[in-house]
Structures are given as structure tokens and as C-alpha cells.
């Protein structure tokens, strides 16, 4: 089978047989390859260069992409379930609507990747770098993203329910109306913590989340639902909780002096040490 360039139609590689399922495609120069709609399930593309390749709607179930160059590749609508991906250059990858269910993206460099409406449920994103990525409306239910970098990541209206986000960095992330119910934002390490400084969690659903010792300075929780959230020992300096729902939320040992909390009913919260000069806490 011949693999051709998407525009010049130049033959980039010749592969034995008529199918690419399970093919050994390691260490090939496939820049700009036309692989759209093809079945590459169980294939091994490790160490190959797929920069600018067209893989729209391709099937890459259980495909290996270790140390693969993927800059500017297009995986829009592709099935990447259970893919094993440790790519070293994934900048500007297009993967909107792609399916990464159960994918192993451990330590993957996914900076500035477009994963809008992608399905990453149950994926392993531990230590992955997603700085500046777009995950608007993405599905990350049950994903493992411990020690991951989501700095400046757009997670607007994404589903992170039951996700493991321990020790991850979500500084300046956009989590507007995101579902973080039952998410674990505690720590795996003694004295460790998850970072949410300057993040936007306005109108987010955080019910039942573990946020013990989280650092959320200058973070917006405006109108967020914090019902049953464990915030013990959290750092909330300058955070905004205006009109937040704090029913049964635990604020043990949390300094609230600089927190904006107007119109949040802290009488329903637990262990909240409210400064006497705070008003409108009804």
C-alpha cells in the first residue's frame, strides 16, 4: 500500500499489503501524509514524523505514537480510543471531536492542542502538558490527570466529574460552567496541593469535590456550586465566592478575611470562621 502526500500526491512510503491495521510504521518520514479515514488500529507509528499529516476520521485504536512528531497534524473526528501516545512534538494538533476514551497520554506534550468536544473519558493524562490547549465542551469524566499542566487551558463547560486532578496546575484555566463534581483535587504527597490560582470557576459544579489544601488565590467561584466540598486547609486569598452555594462545604482552617463572599449563605457551611465585619452573608 502506498502512503501519499495530501497535496502533492508524492509517495512517502510503501507498506506491504493492502491494509495498515497492525502495520509497522516506525521511524518513517510521513510529513503531510494523507491518512484520512484509514484504519491504523494496532499500528506502530513510534519515532515517525507525521507533522502536518491528515488523519481526519481515521481509526487509531490501540495505536502506538511514542516519540512521534505530530506538529500541525489533523486528527479531527478520529477514533483514538486506547491510543498510546507519548509524542514529543504535538503543538497545534487539531483533534476536535476526536475520541480518546481510555487513551494513555502519560507525559504527552499537548500544548496548544485543539481538543474541543473531544472524548477523553477515562484517559490517562498524568504529567501531560496541556498548557494553552482548548478543551471546550470536552468529556474528561473519570480521567486521571495527576501532576498535569492545565495552565491557561480552556476547559469551558467541560465534564471533569470524577476526574483525578491531584497535584495538577490549573493556574489561569477557564473552567466556566465546568462539571467538577466529585473530582479529586487533593494531593498524593505529604504537604502537596493542587493549584487553581487565577482560574475561572464561575458557575462551575463542584459538588462533592475534594479540594483539601488547594491553592485558589484570586480564583473566581462566583455562583459556583460548592455543596459538600472539602476545602479544609485551602488557600483562598482574594478568591471570589459571591453568590456561591456553600451548603455543607467544609472551610476548616481557611482564612476568609480577603475572600469576597457577598450573598453566599455561609450559615449553611461547616467550620467557616467568618470575620465580624463581613456582611450580606445570607
Strand content: under 5%
Dominant shape = elongated
Query: Distance between termini?
Result: 70 Å
Calculate Rg over CA atoms.
Answer: 22 Å
What does this protein structure show overall?
- The protein has 282 residues and is mostly loops.
- 0% of the residues lie in helices and 5% in strands.
- It has strands spanning 2-4, 11-14, 64-66, 84-86.
- It has a two-stranded antiparallel ribbon with strand order 1-2. The chain has a two-stranded parallel sheet with strand order 3-4.
- The chain is elongated, with a radius of gyration of 22 Å.
- The chain starts with a strand and ends in a 196-residue tail after the last strand.
- The model has no long low-confidence stretch (mean pLDDT 95).
Quickly list its features.
two-stranded parallel ribbon, little secondary structure, 282 residues, elongated, single chain, two-stranded antiparallel ribbon, 0% helix, 5% strand
